[in-house]
Structure formats: C-alpha cells, structure tokens
C-alpha cells in the first residue's frame, strides 16, 4: 500500500475500503467502469461521491445536476455530521443486510441508502431555513426512490431502510440511532392536527415490512414491531408487538433487534 493510501485508510477506512472495492469491481465488470469511475473513483472523498450521486439521481428538467451538486457540496462542507451519518448508515446496511456483500453496493445500487442520504441533505436545508428547497428535495426523493421523508423529521445514525419501497415518515417523527425498517413502513399521523403528531422511535428498534405506526406515540428502545402491524399506542422498551391493532406478544428476544434482524415470533405469546 502506498503512503498516500495508507494515510487515507487511517483517516477514513470506510472510504478507503469503498475505493478498493471499486477498483476490484472495474476489473470484474469492465462495462461498469465508466459508472464506477464517475460515481466513486473520480472523487477524493466520500462526501464528494455522495454529492455527485445526489445530484445525478435527483436532477430533472426543473433542477440541473450542477445546481444540486452545489447544494450537496455546501451541505457536506458545512456539516461534517452528514458525512459521519452516511458512513454509519453504510456500515449498518453492510452489517444487517445479507444481500449487501460490499461497501460500494449501497452507494451505487441501494435506493434505501441513497434516499436516506438525500433526506439528510433536505434536513440540512430545512435547518438552514431553506424550506422550499428542502421540499423540492423531498419531492424528487419520493419520485426517484419511492421514499417520502419529510425534511423536518429527525433521524439518527446507523439507520438501515431495507428495500425501502413506499416508506413514509411524517414531519414530526423522530427515529433514533441504529434503527432498521423494511419496505412499506409508515410513521404517520392519525388526523388533521398540526402540532406534534407523529411517532417517536427509540434506539435499536426493528420495524417489520408493512408496519404502520400512527400518532404521537413512543416506541421504546430495542423493541420489535412485527410485519403488517398497526401500532396506535406506546410500546415499552425491549418488547415485541404484533397485530391490528398491535399488542405486546412477548419480549424483544435479543439485546439489539435492529442488528439481529430476527423477525420470527418464536417464544412470544402470539395467541394471548
């Protein structure tokens, strides 16, 4: 390893691994060489690569790649937490998704990861008071990825959104660190109230496919929500809930459900 590469690996091991995988991928599939060079190897940092991907995927006749690239570069340059969150999200996907075999996959191919990073730029715009631009990014993220996250929602680090189709997260929702959710999850309201009206999801929570969590309720740390459930009331920490409406059916089954990703209801009192 050259001295330059060694320094990069020491400072940013995630980005270094992505670049090494990218070189290997070009050798294995030369037809993707242009895509991989443009998307990854052409850039000096992961933040620059993310800004490029953001602009490429969200550009339209209404907003050019150049303008979106400038917005994303400004966001990543102004707030280092965006890049750190992106790394934590990427490692989460790699650790939890058995279909993810390399670090480069989420950046290039996984719409859940890309949509989440687009939301993070929109949230940065929202916090800067640039709400109309934030709404534009929300709209394009929904159109491009099928994921609709309000830019005012607050989402922690190390979040995995698997498959990601039809994810909806409302304006006053809060999602903690190290949360995993599958496709068709809704964190929504229950009516027309305009104040705090969306769920608060604790750290380490696993939300199964198709689950609907509605209203200003709290889902405790390290709990599990079974696929297809409709949650309308608070969920204590370290519990499993299932059903319509959801009720407690047992313990969470492990210390970190979002990492373990076990969605079976073994050991739960599913009858009563």
Quick overview of this protein structure:
This protein is an alpha/beta fold and 272 residues long. Helices cover 44% and strands 14% of the residues.
SS-based class = alpha/beta
**What is the number of helices?**
10
Instruction: Name the CATH homologous superfamily of the largest domain.
Output: serine acetyltransferase, domain 1
Largest sheet: 6 strands, mixed
Give structural notes.
With 272 residues, the chain is an alpha/beta fold. The protein folds into two domains: 135 residues, serine acetyltransferase, domain 1; 114 residues, Hexapeptide repeat proteins (UDP N-Acetylglucosamine Acyltransferase, domain 1). 44% of the residues lie in helices and 14% in strands. The chain contains ten helices and 15 strands. It has a six-stranded mixed β-sheet with strand order 3-6-9-12-14-15. A five-stranded parallel β-sheet has the order 1-4-7-10-13. Helix 1 packs across helix 2 and helix 6 runs antiparallel to helix 8. The protein is globular.
What is the fold's blueprint, element by element?
Elements: H1 3-11, H2 13-28, H3 33-41, H4 46-58, H5 65-78, H6 80-96, H7 104-109, H8 111-127, H9 131-145, E1 147-149, E2 154-155, E3 160-161, E4 167-169, E5 174-175, E6 180-181, E7 186-188, E8 200-201, E9 206-207, E10 212-214, E11 218-219, E12 224-225, E13 230-231, E14 239-242, E15 247-251, H10 257-260
Parallel strand pairs: 1-4, 2-5, 3-6, 4-7, 5-8, 6-9, 7-10, 8-11, 9-12, 10-13, 12-14
Antiparallel strand pairs: 14-15
GO molecular function, one term: serine O-acetyltransferase activity
Family: Belongs to the transferase hexapeptide repeat family.
Pfam family, one: SATase_N
């Amino acid at each position: 390893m050259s001295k330059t590469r060694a320094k990069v690996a020491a400072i940013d091991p995630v980005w270094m691994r992505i670049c090494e995988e990218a070189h290997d991928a070009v050798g294995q599939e030369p037809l993707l060489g242009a895509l991989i060079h443009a998307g990854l190897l052409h850039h000096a940092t992961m933040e620059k690569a993310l800004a490029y991907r953001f602009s490429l995927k969200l550009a339209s006749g209404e907003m050019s790649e150049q303008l979106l690239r400038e917005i994303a570069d400004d966001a990543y340059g102004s707030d280092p937490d965006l890049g750190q969150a992106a790394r934590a999200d990427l490692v989460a996907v790699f650790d939890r998704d058995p279909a993810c075999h390399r670090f480069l996959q989420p950046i290039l191919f996984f719409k859940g990861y890309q949509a989440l990073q687009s939301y993070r730029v929109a949230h940065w715009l929202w916090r800067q008071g640039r709400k109309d631009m934030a709404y534009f990014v929300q709209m394009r993220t929904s159109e491009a990825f099928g994921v609709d996250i309000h830019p005012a929602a607050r989402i922690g680090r190390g979040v995995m959104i698997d498959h990601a189709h039809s994810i909806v997260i409302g304006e006053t929702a809060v999602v903690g660190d190290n949360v995993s959710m599958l496709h068709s999850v809704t964190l929504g309201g229950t009516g027309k109230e305009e104040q705090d009206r969306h769920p608060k999801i604790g750290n380490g929570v696993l939300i199964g496919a198709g689950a609907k969590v509605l209203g200003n309720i709290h889902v405790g740390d390290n709990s599990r929500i079974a696929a297809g459930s409709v949650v309308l009331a608070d969920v204590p920490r370290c519990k499993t809930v299932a059903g319509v409406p959801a009720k407690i059916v047992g313990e969470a089954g492990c210390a970190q459900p979002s990492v373990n990703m076990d969605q079976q209801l073994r050991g739960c009192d599913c009858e009563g």
